[in-house]
Write a structure and sequence with these properties.
The protein is an alpha+beta fold and 292 residues long. The protein contains eight helices and 16 strands. It has helices spanning 28-32, 37-40, 80-85, 100-107, 125-128, 153-160, 172-175, 242-259, and strands at 6-11, 14-27, 51-63, 66-70, 115-119, 132-134, 140-142, 148-152, 180-183, 187-190, 193-197, 206-212, 215-219, 262-264, 271-279, 282-290. Strand 12 and strand 13 (215-219) form a beta hairpin. The N and C termini lie close together (12 Å).
Length: 292
C-alpha cells in the first residue's frame, strides 16, 4: 500500500500540510539517551539492529507571501552505505522526483519551483539534506530554485566549524553554496511565521511558531523529535547540550500549555501533532493526530 503523503489542517486562516518525506532508522539508545531501553521500547519498538523508525516530516504553509516549506528531509545525495546505515526510505516515485518529499508536495498540488521560502530549523542531514538535490545529470543544485532559504546565523557558523562530535551530522554538500538569508535570535520571518530559538540539541536550533487568527502551532523539530520524547528528561543522546534542552523544553511547555499550541512532531512515525495536557506530574498529548 502506498504511504500517505500529506495531512492538511488549518491554523487560523493559514492552510498547512504535514508532508511525509520518507523515513530513516536511528539507534534507539542514542535517540533516548539515559532512558533505559526497557522504558523507551514500550513506546517505540527497535529492529534487530536496535534502530527505531523515524519520520522525515516537513511542514508546508500556504502564505500570502508564497509557499513556505519548513525543513526539507534527507535528500537524495547520499551513497548506498549511508542509506543502509541509517535505514533511509525516501525514494521518489512520481515523475522522476528526487525524493518522497517532492511526491508529497505534488500530492497537495505544488512543485518545487512553486516554493518561495525554505526555513531550516537546523542544518543536520535529516533536516536540511533536501535543500540541495542531485539532478538527472548528476549535478548538485538547489532543490527549490525560486525560494529564499532561511536559517539562524549562529547555526550556519556552527555547521561550518565542526569537531569530532558534530561532523557526522553536518554534511557540507547540504548547505554549501545555499544563499541563506540569516536571522539572529527570535524573529518574525513572515507575518505569522516566527523563528524561536530552542537550543540544546545544538546551540542555535530553532522551532517555528505559526500564529494566525488566534491559533498557534509549533513545529518542534529536534527539541521534541517524537511524542515519546515529551517527558522533560527523555532527551536524545545526540543533543550536545542536554541540560539546556531540559530548560528549553520547560519554558516552551509553559507557553504551549497556556496558549494551547498545536505541537507538530517532525520524527514521530505515527503521531503528527497534538496539544499538551497534564498527565500526573508530567505532560501528555490531548487528541493526537495520527498518521492514517
Amino acid at each position: 500500500m502506498a504511504p500517505r503523503l500529506s495531512t492538511t489542517f488549518k491554523i487560523g486562516r493559514l492552510t498547512c500540510h504535514a508532508l511525509e518525506g520518507g523515513t530513516q532508522r536511528l539507534d534507539g539508545g542514542a535517540m533516548f539517551g539515559v532512558v533505559p531501553k526497557v522504558l523507551w521500547e514500550r513506546r517505540i519498538r527497535a529492529d534487530e539492529r536496535n534502530r527505531i523508525t523515524l519520520a522525515l516530516r516537513c511542514l508546508l504553509v500556504e502564505h500570502d507571501d508564497g509557499l513556505v516549506l519548513i525543513d526539507t528531509g534527507l535528500g537524495n545525495k547520499e551513497d548506498a552505505k549511508f542509506m543502509d546505515i541509517y535505514g533511509v526510505q525516501n525514494q521518489g516515485t512520481t515523475g522522476g522526483s528526487p525524493t518522497q518529499l517532492e511526491d508529497a508536495l505534488s500530492a497537495v498540488g505544488h512543485r518545487p519551483a512553486d516554493v518561495r521560502w525554505v526555513i531550516n530549523t537546523h542544518l543536520h542531514f535529516d533536516h536540511a539534506g533536501g535543500d540541495r538535490c542531485r539532478d538527472a545529470s548528476g549535478q548538485v543544485v538547489l532543490a527549490f530554485p525560486n525560494a529564499r532559504y532561511v536559517v539562524q546565523k549562529g547555526e550556519l557558523d556552527f555547521a561550518r566549524h565542526t569537531n569530532e562530535r558534530t561532523a557526522g551530522s553536518y554534511l557540507p554538500h547540504n548547505f554549501a553554496d545555499v544563499p541563506f538569508q540569516l536571522i539572529d535570535g527570535e524573529q518574525e520571518i513572515l507575518p505569522g511565521i516566527r523563528g524561536i530559538p530552542t537550543p540544546g540539541h545544538v546551540p542555535y536550533h530553532q522551532s517555528i511558531l505559526i500564529d494566525s487568527g488566534g491559533e498557534k502551532a509549533c513545529f518542534l523539530a529536534d527539541l521534541v523529535p517524537t511524542s515519546a520524547h515529551l517527558p522533560l528528561p527523555w532527551i536524545m543522546g545526540y543533543d550536545v547540550q542536554p541540560l539546556v534542552t531540559l530548560e528549553t523544553r520547560r519554558r516552551l511547555y509553559g507557553r504551549a500549555e497556556a496558549e494551547q499550541w498545536l505541537l507538530l512532531f517532525e520524527h514521530d512515525p505515527a503521531v503528527i501533532s497534538g496539544r499538551l495536557g497534564r498527565d500526573g506530574k508530567g505532560f501528555g498529548l490531548v487528541q493526537p493526530q495520527v498518521l492514517g
